Amino acid sequence: MSTESAPAPKSGVAEDVQPGPRVAVSALITNLREYGLILALIAIMVFFQFTTSGTLFKPVNLSNLVQQNSFIIVMALGMLLVIVSGHIDLSVGSVAGFIGALAAMMMVIWPLGPLSNPLVVSIICLIIGGGIGAAQGYWIAYHRIPSFIVTLAGMLIFRGICQALLGGGSSVGPLPDGFKALSSGFIPDVIGPLTLIPPTVNAAGKTIMGSGLTLHMTTIVLGVVAVLAYAYFGLRARRTREQHGYEAEPFALFVVKTLVTSALALFLVYQFASYRGLPIVLMVMGVLIALFVFVTKRMTIGRRIYAMGGNAKAAQLSGIKTERLTLMVFVNMGVLSALGGLIIAARLGQAVPAAGLGSELDVIAAVFIGGASAMGGVGQVIGAVVGGFIMGVMNNGMSIMGVNVDWQQVVKGLVLLGAVVFDVYNKNKG
Amino acid sequence: MTSTILEMRDITKTFPGVKALSNVNLSVEEGEIHAVVGENGAGKSTLMKVLSGVYASGTYEGAIVYRGEECHFKGIHDSEHKGIVIIHQELALVPMLSIAENIFLGNEHAKFGIIDWNANETRTSALLKKVGLKEDPKTLITNIGVGKQQLVEIAKALSKEVKLLILDEPTASLSEKDSQALLDLLLEFKRQGMTSILISHKLNEVNRVADKVTVIRDGRTIETLARKDISEDRIITSMVGRSLDDRYPPREPKIGETVLQVKNWSVYHPIHAERQVIKGIDISVRKGEVVGIAGLMGAGRTEFAMSLFGRSYGRHITGEVLLKGKPIDVSSVSKAVDHGIAYVTEDRKTYGLNLIDHIKHNITLANLSGVSRHSVIDDMRELAVANDYKAKTNIRSSSVYQMTGNLSGGNQQKVVLSKWLFANPEVLILDEPTRGIDVGAKYEIYTIIARLASEGKAIIVISSEMPELLGITDRIYVMNEGRMVGEMAASDASQEKIMRAIVRGEGKAS
Asked: Domain for residue A34, yes or no?
């Protein structure tokens, strides 16, 4: 072998290196895209605030909005993971309906004695939901039956069982008050109310509706604590980065982001506090959102789900048990569908055969509006939540405006298409 | 006298960063079987893609003169129109359609869009007779073997009034018997006056049917041999006798005790359960040793490695794996990884990377427990690890937050390599570690391999580039058709010796 004359190859061409300033710009662009969705939500809210002449942000309407849409968002959390892992679940609306019916039967009709306690029933229902998820996920994960087909079957099956359970077209209720509190209850004011403006009392000695201003102090305190915690953890994360010698996002951007988010949160908290405080379902939702953000951002299982959705073969060859992971994603979806079903039943105060009908489409739409990719591997929890709220605000706002339900669907469809087209266009450009 | 049907003059084709063909000349006489031979990656398939218009006129330099006129094919349709039909290595048949439907796909006998099935099937029967295939035209492609599928492809070519038939490695996946039948068919066509170009690296086949052989190496025409000059030795010398343009980092091997030993490893095809892909392989690798596995495409090297790595390929896997003398269980990827085995895939885009995620997440994927506590990922530790490996393997990117899909091939390879280095394996199997990457990046990969060996890792390198194996390994196994057909110390080995082992092994294997 000759070793002559060939120039020793040095480190090759620096084809992938970008100059420094472009990094900052691209960071800003990524952030803009991320916050674009929140800005869109705010724009939509402001729009409806005007078109409904101020009704949208009224404290009572905000509570309604949360109570009407929380089940969509709860289910969207599970759907996000399903879609990120490269699948779809069409059965969630039917599973929710079935679980609602089951819960009502257990609490109202069947003589279960102490087992008909709302809490016990709820826990059993969540477990059954997980079982349903496992049953569907088993075929998808281990037999590679397309999730579209398995869950389409599930959609038919569980809607059928739901209707059969309720004995045809009838509804079952009323459900116990303790159960209904899940949807329509508010957190108790352990600190006690603070009256800023005493209510006006009319001649008959009755308070005039809507007059005066009393604040739910527990809500205020919780809200302030949450906002402070948010700012603190944001700052701490920045400091850790800097201590390790990595540049964080520009400080100005961080401050603006934190201030805007905090102001928005405090405004909403104030609105809730001036009505009856934080709805219980909002607390449940908030805890779940925080949990899923943590799982997707910080935990190994979250990372594995994204890797599996991005390239299942590569994930498998990296030692990830993709079958088991897929199964777990569907079990999670089943549990959250069950929770969604309980929330729906609690809000209606009874189980009806059509509960959750068509809601799978709202849930899926929320996730896609939130920027998830139908190809899998891409999507954020916060995106799905904001997507859910966008759907919710549109539902609520258009209803107040008196837009016909038929046309509401048309508008929602156009928004879904528009959001995804915008996303794809952006990606191709970027 | 015969006339020249095709002349390709000074064909040069450049891909970003790589010159695939440089001034290649090919001249084919009417009515002959012209073989084009060369190593994997020599540029044979690229040349045929230029000819058939897969690479449109204008994307390459040089001229194609066919039947006396210069041609500028914009696509495969143009070349087919002139009677040039190429049959690719991977068959382009639709499995769930019938033979007749496949033969006339896109070219159906139809009136106003309504297919005349009788005409299609009658013509199909006639074509099948010509290629000697006794099957009902209505049989689905999926129900016939690969050999017969190959014949259907040829029948399809005949249906297009083919004048110049190009076969790209037609016998690569055929049994000995099917191969013989196919070659006989080629000779029969020749008697009828058809011209064929046969791309192959099976020299015994070339020897049997070719009238002329053109040898291509490193994107250049080396020589064209006439019938009387064709001999295996001559072709082998021509195929491998390259001047060494690459250099390899110097290395002082420090070889220790045996780390991994595989005994009597057998694997069957995942779909065709009766086909044995790996036929009782024994192999071992020692501490600090770099072992090469040479062989041609389809020899079963990747299948062997993947079946070893958590049964990621094949079924009915039997055999024994010993790590430092103790039998270990490698029945799943995570078990194999836990035992310190890592496999760096030859196909980084399909099996190696999550292309829609950034470098950092890709590097830690195979060893998430290394950057987490109680399943919670420590972001700072992960970032430090990613930056560390980015520096160690010299990944060139703006930051570890760059999407791997936007990296060049060489840098992608370094990310995959980093992923497995972070998993801290004792045995590292590298499958075609330098495929499709430029010379500079190759050198860097070789340097990493040399460093790992000096750190005491046991390394297996699978490569189709023989100079690479000779340059970086200590010992070379030669594999062919699922068997080990040779083993030699790298110091004793030469490209001729390896090629000879492969070619000789070919006869034995059948």
From this structure: no
